[in-house]
DNA sequence: AGCCCATGTTCGGATTTCCGAACACCATAA
DNA sequence: TTATGGTGTTCGGAAATCCGAACATGGGCT
């Protein structure tokens, strides 16, 4: 009935929680049970994998379910919430449902009916019709949607994003999903190409080989003006092939500086797909890490059985400025250096060992972070303490105290 | 408070209905009272004029309010429904709210609070003589008064305010309310114009086309001195057209710096209308958001039923430096990314979800530092919690708590 | 079994931190 | 001149955090 669904249960009552847990697992769901609000908060906010539903009691020892839901809404799009409660008020029910909660049920309730409602409500949300290539985060899903939409159109596409985010994969995927999928797909990496002009337009070049397929131009910002103009012209003469281009975030700056033709930009950016950086979607980072591990570990490090949870946590925290490429590089290096039977954080991030942060006590580390953050905030506001305090979300007086403590004034 | 609102009251109890009727009419609403379901059904389905809200009892002699609502839903989109009931059930409340009712209140209730919620929830559909273009706040009303006064005079007007506050709408409105409304209204956006001089004075330019109508000069601060002088001169020679100008807040600075003619300033600022920033009048921000939602949601996001109260609260808090333009842009983006059936805060403010390295709150920065430090310590001790705690100079239990908080286990 | 040791977990109180109110002070704008 | 708005500073209570004690658990060792 609920096979494979990942459900979070938040319930402090042992009996109630136990029976729910049992029943849900019987139905095939993977359930994680929290008895306190703050624990559930952390787990839902940074989930190991996407959560399909949250079943949440209202009365909790360290808060209430409403609070939990509201807090989540501030920073993220929460998964579907079903509230169950013993002392429910109509007022509260109305408020929660209007805030987007999926259901609100009073105890005691009929378990069979409850499960039926649950399966009705939750299942349609999750239908992965094809294996995810970019990631599992909601942001990645968003991009996939855009990709699908781009595939069904026939306009030129501009894919934008930092390095190592799979812009080439996206282009390939658009081609494969489009009705040109039977025709050739040719890619040119402008950053590597010696002679871009001939690689694109020459005999045996991209357009030549593509026929009425798709031409993918990676790093379009590197083109010099003459080739840009030829490309613009190519659009006008209606080449047979469809064009997908990719570039980093700096194209506007290039246009501003007059190094990139704004006309070409508008031609090629009929559809624009922005790929958010990997650091902004930690779920994808760990997902990718696990995927690559599965693929690479058997050959390269036969002894390794898995990745330690700590290591995954560290990966979730890391910024990954190099995108997927960095994930792969670090993993390869880590696999070579791993000693035990699981991959440790120091394998993936050896530089953190040498860091001076090492044997600092927690309080010191915390203070150091506070200090730099405060300095940054004060810098941003030009020394305006009140404003800086607002930025840091603390009271003005508290900031003043801290400044005194750190000797800033 | 409820001036001009058309409200349908469905209530069989004489006392209750009478007191509600009395009170609502006291507040300025036009109320029609039905005591039976089938009568109300007919009246709502084929209304004389648009109905702003329905206040509906559940228990009725010939049926119940839910039935009434559902019947209406099948044939049309009903006006906002507020249910009031004596023997309400949570089950029922949840069902009704999920199917789109605006509120569900149990008797007895506090009349004052009820009226407040009513006025908050219900937005006047159309007030034909006076559709508010700027907002509903007292500040916006103030501006409207100034607009009306400006329209009745014939002096040049200077409209001032940040971007996206509808300065163009104000100019248009002054024109439409003035006795030049039959003559042409021509607008020039000086920020976009290549050749301001000819766009204003040239053949086919604003003055030429306006005749004895109104000329609107947006972004007057961008004019260079020669054109300023020509404009000043135009005032002296008494052109036929009336001039309305608009600019940001920086005009005084320009005058100070000698880049703007103070004489022209005094000429054009005979009447000065200051539009306060949207961040200073939160009611208008949410009002505008709701207006735009009503207009845009049906086309762009058919599944969406409304805006979550949390989201409205977030909108009320936001600064809206981009004015109405920002409201619109954020809404459009949010509609595209919304997942559930209501718009969530993270849809409208995705940057709070993935702030690219920007300004973290102090607590976040501190937590991040703690987390990495803890991971490093645990890594060093090979996962030995007690040892790691000693390294970090905190109690074992404290470390355990933190590990829970950060989801490490 | 019996013991040892580390962990998982709760609890109550000690301590620290945080906040808001309040007041004095000093610019600067009206 | 008077408002106004930001800052420096103090203070008391509220809230969080931290800690140690305590107890159960469970795995490894003899």
Task: Give a structural overview.
The structure is a homodimer of 409-residue chains. Chain A is 50% helix and 14% strand. With 409 residues, chain A is of the alpha/beta class. Chain A has four domains: 6-125, Response regulator (Rossmann fold, 3-Layer(aba) Sandwich), CATH 3.40.50.2300; 138-274, Rossmann fold, CATH 3.40.50; 280-354, Helicase, Ruva Protein, domain 3 (Orthogonal Bundle); 362-406, Arc Repressor Mutant, subunit A. In chain A, helix 1 links the parallel strand 1 and strand 2 (30-34). The longest helix of chain A is centred in the last third of the chain and has 20 residues, at 362-381. At the A-B interface, helix 2, helix 3, helix 4, strand 7 and helix 6 of A face helix 4, strand 7, helix 14, helix 16 and helix 17 of B. Chain A binds a DNA duplex (30 and 30 nucleotides) through helix 20.
Q: What are the main properties of this structure?
A:
Helicase, Ruva Protein, domain 3, homodimer, DNA-binding, Rossmann fold, 409 residues
């Amino acid at each position: 009935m609920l096979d494979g669904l990942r459900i979070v249960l938040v319930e402090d009552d042992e009996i109630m929680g136990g029976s729910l847990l049992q029943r849900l697992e019987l139905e095939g769901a993977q359930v994680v049970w929290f008895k306190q609000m703050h624990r559930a908060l952390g787990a839902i906010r940074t989930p190991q994998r996407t959560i399909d539903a949250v079943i949440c009691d209202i009365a909790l020892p360290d808060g209430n379910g409403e609070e939990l839901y509201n807090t989540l809404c501030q920073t993220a799009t929460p998964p579907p919430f079903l509230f169950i409660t013993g002392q429910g008020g109509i007022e509260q029910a109305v408020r929660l449902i209007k805030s987007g909660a999926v259901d609100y049920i009073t105890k005691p309730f009929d378990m069979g009916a409850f499960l039926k409602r649950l399966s009705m409500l939750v299942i349609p949300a999750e239908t992965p019709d094809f294996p995810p290539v970019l990631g599992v985060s909601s942001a990645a899903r968003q991009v996939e949607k855009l990709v699908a939409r781009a595939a069904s159109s026939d306009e030129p596409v501009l894919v934008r994003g930092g390095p190592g985010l799979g812009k080439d994969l996206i282009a390939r995927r658009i081609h494969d999903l489009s009705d040109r999928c039977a025709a050739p797909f040719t890619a040119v990496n402008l950053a590597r190409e010696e002679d871009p002009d001939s690689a694109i337009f020459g005999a045996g070049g991209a357009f030549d080989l593509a026929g009425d397929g798709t031409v993918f131009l990676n790093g379009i910002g590197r083109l010099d003006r003459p080739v840009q103009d030829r490309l613009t012209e190519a659009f006008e003469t209606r080449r047979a092939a469809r064009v997908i281009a990719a570039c980093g975030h700096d194209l506007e700056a290039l246009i501003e500086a007059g190094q990139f033709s704004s006309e070409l930009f508008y031609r090629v950016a009929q559809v624009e797909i922005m790929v958010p950086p990997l650091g902004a979607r930690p779920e994808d980072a760990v997902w990718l890490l696990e995927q690559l591990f599965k693929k690479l570990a058997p050959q390269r490090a036969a002894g390794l059985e898995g990745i330690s949870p700590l290591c995954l946590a560290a990966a979730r925290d890391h910024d990954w400025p190099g995108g997927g490429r960095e994930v792969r590089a670090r993993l390869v290096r880590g696999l070579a250096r791993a000693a035990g039977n699981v991959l440790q954080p120091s394998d993936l991030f050896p530089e953190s060992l040498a860091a001076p942060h090492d044997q600092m006590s927690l309080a010191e580390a915390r203070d150091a972070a506070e200090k730099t953050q405060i300095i940054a905030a004060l810098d941003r506001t030009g020394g305006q303490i009140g404003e800086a305090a607002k930025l840091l979300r603390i009271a003005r007086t508290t900031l003043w105290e801290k400044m005194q403590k750190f000797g800033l004034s």
